[in-house]
Every structure is written in structure tokens, then in C-alpha cells.
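Propose amino acids for all 102 sites.
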């Protein structure tokens, strides 16, 4: 299995959870803005720290399993994890928090 396929499989539950939260709870613009900002910050931190760790040779990726699209030293497939976390956690919070408490 390639890293891209693994990332795609891993992204399915967070995307479905976000769609479910959006349909069930109808979040406002503020929720979407905060969620987008969270994802962007997580992406930036991942790019920075993964670049440092890859440059320090702390870990390597199997070249034959990569798509070849890189942002600096970071393969684009490695960005699926912060996107998943940035979507899943706010969506769960939205679904599990009573309406009157938000």
C-alpha cells in the first residue's frame, strides 16, 4: 500500500465526521473559521518539524511508495495526519456538545 492510499483511507473517517457534524449541527462561520485556522496551524507545524526531522535523518520514507510531490523535504502524503486531526476533533466536539452549551 502506498503512503497516498494509506492517507486516503485514514482521511475518510474525519471527513465523514465533519460532513455529519455540518449536516446535523449546522455550525456557523466562526466554527468553520476556527477549524480552518486549526488545520492551517497544524499543517505549518508539521511542515516545519517534519522538515527538521527529515533533514536530521531521524526517519526516512520508502521512495517507491511516495507520490513524488514534496513540500520542502516533506512528502505531501505526510500532511494527511494533521488534516485528519484538525477535522476530527472539532467535529467530535461539535457533535458531542449539547446545543445550549455552545
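Proposal:
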Amino acid at each position: 500500500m502506498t503512503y497516498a492510499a494509506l492517507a486516503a483511507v485514514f482521511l475518510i473517517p474525519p471527513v465523514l465526521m465533519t460532513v455529519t457534524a455540518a449536516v446535523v449541527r449546522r455550525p456557523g462561520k466562526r466554527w468553520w473559521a476556527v477549524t480552518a485556522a486549526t488545520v492551517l496551524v497544524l499543517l505549518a507545524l508539521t511542515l516545519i518539524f517534519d522538515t527538521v526531522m527529515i533533514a536530521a535523518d531521524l526517519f526516512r520514507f520508502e521512495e517507491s511508495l511516495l507520490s513524488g510531490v514534496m513540500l520542502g523535504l516533506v512528502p505531501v502524503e505526510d500532511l494527511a495526519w494533521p488534516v485528519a486531526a484538525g477535522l476530527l476533533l472539532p467535529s467530535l466536539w461539535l457533535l458531542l456538545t449539547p446545543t445550549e452549551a455552545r
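Residues 29-55 form the longest helix (27 residues). The first strand starts at residue 70 and ends at 71.
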